[in-house]
Design brief:
The complex is a heterodimer of chains A (326) and B (280).
Chain A lengths: L7 H19 L5 H20 L3 H8 L7 H8 L3 E3 L12 E8 L2 E8 L5 H6 L7 H16 L4 E7 L6 H5 L2 H13 L5 E10 H5 L6 E5 L3 E3 L3 H9 L5 H8 L3 H6 L5 E3 L10 H20 L3 H13 L4 E3 L2 E2 L6
Parallel strand pairs in A: 3-4, 4-5, 5-6, 5-7, 6-8
Antiparallel strand pairs in A: 1-2, 2-3, 9-10
Chain B lengths: L2 H6 L17 E3 L6 E3 H6 L15 H8 L4 E4 L3 E3 L11 H12 L5 E8 L2 E8 L10 H17 L3 E7 L7 H20 L4 E9 L1 H4 L8 E4 L10 H8 L10 H6 L5 E2 L5 H11 L3
Parallel strand pairs in B: 6-7, 7-8, 8-9, 9-10
Antiparallel strand pairs in B: 1-2, 3-5, 5-6
Helix pairs in contact in B: 5-6
The chains are: A alpha/beta (326), B alpha/beta (280).
Bound molecules: zinc ion (ZN).
């Protein structure tokens, strides 16, 4: 098990538990009552820790090395799935995966950023940081979904679009902008969920939809707390402060009306009960698609554009347009 | 009639705005280090008279250069608010106050409608002097309003980008302006109203990755820095020096992301031709 720094109290309890279990195996002492007691303690400690997570702790959880990624969810949610590759122009980006799947009888196109599960795979997936061809592959699949009247499901999990030399040569900005433009007027329903990290343009490049959800312990922001710290505080040490200031948690995003719902995670994070997490995710996605399919495509597109048109807070000279939050 | 002549004729409204262009008598070029007078500089469209370096100018300078004299500013009553109560080394409210004081502008974008050689055009022009031309709710809303105005009056839209990207102090609200502006542009496209995106030095981050790259025509000033990621970030990522001319207008033209580059002295003529050739 991997423990994050704020999970230290849990780590020592698990340590004790392990020791007692060893003693128990020797068969001299009856350790059952002690084990029971420790398990209760673990449960309560976990509840304590997880009911009061800071912004930064949620960022840490969203990056937990055992956290499920896009392909895990796809395989859990779909009985059948065919992965499709390539943007047809340049290459196949390993940081964005996509294909056609079947969600309980409903055919959908699923697209998402993919991180690697070990050191080698993390590099292979470029840490979930896509190049322009990733966004173009995503768009190719969305246009195909439109032709065959299949809803689009996007799973967002990226520390950002890749800031590389070749990414600039091939038009990283254009690729993201094009996706926003095309997603805004796609004729099929689009349901997006942030399942891990939702960093900036790299996230929203597959994140414009009729419904946008966030898993409970994820974040969505214009910049990562680390980069924000380095730019605004001019050092790398204020990431906790930056994470608070950016108000980047699912709770904040929901309160601001920038996302449509929060999907609860198992206590301790998605990785502690990934199958349950996948079930909850699937339930939300299916429900959203069913609701969206009730709408006429033109009406749905207008509603989508109107929704984004309303995002923003400003004042008109003299009078307040919006009240500040409590 | 040269644009400076028009300026002198007093048909401009811009004098109340402090210019981003240098004041004072002398101008020392950032590019060739030669000195010229500010008068010479202004008569040369704020380009260095010696090397044609395009000095960064503000929204009202562009309006003066492009429009036939008079123009009407639109949506000037919108102000940014510190909705998130964001404080880094300085509270966002302080940054807004000092930016307003320094620039006499309300935010990093100004929208105006006027005529270019008798053809109507809506221009939304960004000001780098206002918190780095960063895009927050007001920038997004004003572009949205400009799109609505263009739609309603069937007038082509031009956005002059000059921005370091998103405004961090508005966090996700600033990120959503990318989606908002791009989504609203689809309505303009559907209505068959042309959108010209003019990229000037610098255009980076979320601005490039949304409305700035979505023009029916994308064009730029010479040697402008244009990119998604900033050069410093890229350098740190790839741990190599960046090639000469990387992320310049010329680089983007070469890689297929711009239609052309235009010298500021030819800007007005070119825009008038564009409006004409699109049938407006
Ligand atoms: Zn010069």
């Amino acid at each position: 098990m991997v423990f994050l720094d704020f999970e230290k109290p849990l780590e020592s309890l698990y340590h004790q538990l392990e020791k007692i279990q060893q003693v128990g195996e020797e068969g001299v002492l009856d350790v059952e009552p002690m084990i029971k007691e420790l398990e209760t303690k673990i449960r309560n400690t976990r509840k304590d820790i997880y009911s009061n997570l800071t912004g930064w702790q949620k960022v840490q959880l969203s990056r937990h090395p055992e956290r499920p990624y896009t392909l895990y969810y796809i395989n859990q949610m779909c009985r059948k799935f065919i992965e499709l590759h390539g943007d047809r122009y340049y290459a196949d980006d390993k940081a964005i995966v996509g294909g056609i799947g079947n969600l309980d009888g409903m055919n959908v196109v699923i697209i998402g950023q993919q991180k690697g599960v070990n050191t080698k795979m993390r590099q292979f997936r470029n840490f979930g940081m896509a190049n322009p061809e990733g966004y173009r592959k995503a768009l190719r699949l969305m246009k195909m979904a439109e032709r065959f009247n299949m809803p689009v499901v996007c799973l967002i999990d990226t520390p950002g679009a890749f800031p590389g030399l070749e990414a600039e040569e091939r038009g990283q900005a254009e690729a993201i902008a094009r996706n926003l433009f095309e997603m805004a007027q796609l004729r099929v329903p689009i349901v997006c969920t942030v399942i891990g990290e939702g960093a900036s343009g790299g996230a929203i490049g597959i994140g414009l939809g009729d419904r946008v959800y966030m898993l409970e312990n994820t974040w969505y922001s214009v910049i990562s707390p680390e980069s924000c710290s380095s730019i605004l505080w001019r050092n790398w040490d204020n990431k906790e402060l930056a994470a608070e200031a950016l108000k980047l948690t699912a709770e904040h995003m929901f309160e601001f009306g920038l996302i449509d719902d929060i999907i609860k995670e198992p206590l301790g994070g998605a990785h502690t009960a990934p199958e349950d997490m996948a079930k909850a995710l699937k339930r939300h996605i299916k429900k959203a698609i069913q609701e969206l399919q009730e709408m006429d495509p033109d009406e749905r597109i207008e509603a989508r554009i109107d929704k984004y048109s309303q995002m923003g807070h400003y004042e008109r000279a003299g009078e307040k347009v919006e009240d500040k939050p409590e | 009639m040269g644009w400076f002549k028009r300026l002198k004729d007093g048909i401009q409204t811009a004098t109340k705005y402090k210019k981003e262009a240098p004041d004072g008598l002398w101008y020392k070029c950032k590019s060739c280090s030669e000195t010229s007078t500010v008068k010479e500089l202004k008569e040369n469209f704020f380009k260095c008279p010696k090397c044609d370096y395009h000095v960064r100018i503000g929204s009202h300078d562009y309006f003066d250069i492009i429009f036939d004299g008079k123009y009407n500013e639109l949506f000037e009553d919108l102000y940014s608010v510190d909705f998130l109560e964001f404080t880094d080394l300085k509270p966002y409210t302080e940054r807004l106050k000092s930016a307003r004081k320094k620039t006499d502008l309300t935010d990093a974008i100004t929208v105006a409608v006027g005529k270019v050689k008798k053809r109507a055009l809506v221009i939304a022009a960004m000001d780098f002097s206002f918190i780095g031309g960063s895009m927050g709710s007001v920038v997004g809303e004003k572009i949205g309003n400009a799109i609505d105005y263009s739609l309603e009056h069937k007038i082509p839209l031009m956005v002059i980008s000059k921005s370091g990207g998103a405004r961090m102090m508005e966090s996700a609200f600033s990120l959503m302006q990318m989606a908002k502006t791009s989504a609203k542009l689809t309505r303009l496209a559907k209505a068959g109203i042309p959108y010209f995106s003019f990229l000037t030095d610098p255009t980076t981050g979320g601005v490039t990755a949304s409305f700035a790259m979505l023009g029916d025509i994308n064009f730029a000033e010479p040697k402008a820095l244009i990119g998604f990621a900033g050069p410093r970030v890229i350098k740190e990522t790839i741990k190599k020096d960046l090639p000469e001319g990387f992320q310049t207008s010329e680089f983007l033209l070469e890689h297929g992301f711009l239609d052309f580059i235009v010298d500021r002295s030819e800007l007005r003529d070119r825009i008038a031709d564009m409006i004409h050739l699109f049938g407006y």
